[in-house]
Amino acid sequence: MTAPLPFPDGVLVVDKPQGPTSHDVVALARRALGVSGIGHTGTLDPMATGVLPLVIGRATRLAQFLTASDKDYEATVRFGRTTNTYDAMGTVVTTSDERPTREQIEQALGRFRGTFEQTPPAFSAKNIDGARSYDIARKAKDGVVTLPKAVTTTVRQLDLMSFDGETAGLRVRATAGFYVRSLAHDLGAALGMGGVLTALRRTRSGEFCLEGSVPLADVLQASRESLAGRLLPFSSLLPELPAVTLRGPEQLARVKNGVEIAPGDLLTPLSPLPELVRLLGHDGTLVGLAKPGKTAGFLHASIVLL
Questions:
Q1: How does pLDDT run across 268-294, given as a tens digit for each residue?
Q2: Residue 45 catalytic?
Q3: d(CA 293, CA 276)
Q4: Cβ(79)–Cβ(101) under 8 Å?
Q5: I need a surface site. Which of 47, 142, 258, 259 has the fewest CB within 10 A?
Q6: pTM of the predicted model over 0.85
Q7: Domains, the chain, ranges and CATH?
Q8: Pick the catalytic residue: 9, 15, 24, 45?
């Protein structure tokens, strides 16, 4: 019996359904594709749906750069209660009969635009002294949990899209590491009546959007060949970074061997050198990422995809 061909390297954008964790999606994809080297580029809570890019094979080496991009969300916040997890899946902590007006919500949203300090939820994957915050919160015997340290975050767009007297629909664009659950909780606190996140859909993660994404059910049912055709290749990744092209195979070998890249190794050198550039082979394929080297004007490959 002929062994199946190796699954190609690249990014598969999955439309995650409600229920499974991001880790569950990765585990399911590993079994479906027969590939052990799979990761994701930004956790989604079990309740959340939407864009979850999976990095496959050598693309896992790019995960840290793909994760750092801005994210877009559509969120629903219900007012009048708080929970320990800041979403509808948690234990109710407080309740209130008060409800805000649309004008009050609009005014309160103003304090959550721009750059500010946000405290992640206690039930999150944030690290506290070497342990996951959610593990610490689950073990809290007296109900008093330790919140992770506040982090600097930037909300580039925050719009009230709908309000029915009980729930508000929000559209959010924020930097990596932003917690929409914290936004829901903090918005409710600002209004004086509490609020929880009841629905969340990520519509964009950096360069990856819902358009062209693959439902998780298709990942589990479709053939490996058809899924390979849905992969985003290396050449399409990180388009926001400047690129330089190596002259030929000799320069490619230098990159592979860890030798610094001289200006003469490139078809068109860059000056001044940016902090990070894409390295392209002479055929236009992405072969790595490079940073300025120790020698002025030279580049050093920090990520090699060969």
A1: 999 899 999 999 998 889 999 999 999
A2: yes
A3: 11
A4: no
A5: 142
A6: yes
A7: 10-69+207-236 (3.30.2350.10), 71-205 (3.30.2350.10), 243-304 (2.30.130.10)
A8: 45
